[in-house]
Amino acid sequence: MIESPAGTGWYVYGVAEDDPALARLDGVELIRRGTLAAVAREVSLDEYGADVLPERLNDREWLERNARSHEAVLQAAAAVTTVVPLRFGTIYRGRGHVERMLEERNDEFRATLARVRGHVELGVKAWVDLAAVGQTLDPAEQPLEGGAGMAYLQQRSREQDRSREVTARCFELAEEAHGRLAGIAVAAVANRPQPRELTGRSESMVLNGAYLVPDGDEQLRSEVDRLAAEHAGLGVEYELTGPWPPHNFAGEWE
Amino acid sequence: MSSRELAQRQGSGPAQLADVLERVLDKGIVIAGDIQINLLDIELLTVRLRLLVASADKAREMGIDWWENDPFLSSGSNGKSKSLDSRLRALEEKAGLPTDDKDDKDDE
User: Fold this and answer.
1) I want to staple A77 with a disulfide (CB 3.0 to 4.6 A). Which of A17, A83, A188, B102 is the partner?
2) In the prediction, which pLDDT does B33 show?
3) Within a domain: residue B107?
């Protein structure tokens, strides 16, 4: 086979403590330096070169396939040892460059690995049906007074008040839930709720949290069950995802 | 429904794409590799991603804020502004308004 003109690069998915168990992973190579191992794969620059990437990234099918593949590699690695995820598309021109990166960032990686070792990330989302939340609020309906025009204005004003109350109530619920879950977790992040364009659901997401918890620990799960039971009558639904590799807890070094 | 049941319900299927994209595109350690990958190049999902990812904030810090001045979020091709211009011109002509003639953009 003729080598592609663009050549190849090394795509790095994550960094782990060099562990013999990593050898079990399929389809990836380990690039080692000191006590660290980069979980990497040789990729064609026809696929990942700087000149083709902008186009590739805007190919929805390509993006989904490769984002899922990135996650799948990390999941497989996380199943055998602690791994620190790197952002999608971290690519080097040669193995030597990856080795140098590991060496330069040795202390940071080791500190992060120590922090997340034995832990997993769980995602918790809360969804609300805004109409249902509205119905749980004080239903005191006073008879409308005055003529049709006045009644219309009163009606509009009430609707606006109601909408503000619903929003405030949703914030309260999300804050309460996140506070309780964060109290159980080792670390917690409240991410921006995903917009409907992305979720495709009619309900609104009011909480999009990520929680770092000890692997196998059921406390956070139980708390989500409790929240779900307590808030069921308010039209709130909870969704737990994961375990994930610690994507949300890999970034801060401070 | 308990979270356990929920987890089971979705446990068999793949993770939701939104959750995966959020994590792999916006989280994880950021290291500048040899190949510069600019996730802000993702126009396809611009509207969705810009609402989702903190990268939008980071981009703003870096001074990249094109979407804020562009009501169409630059989600289309570069040709879009040109077609908007010509549509605007057609409307102006129809309405009998003076048109702002600029021929320079046709040279590109």
Assistant:
1) A83
2) 85
3) no
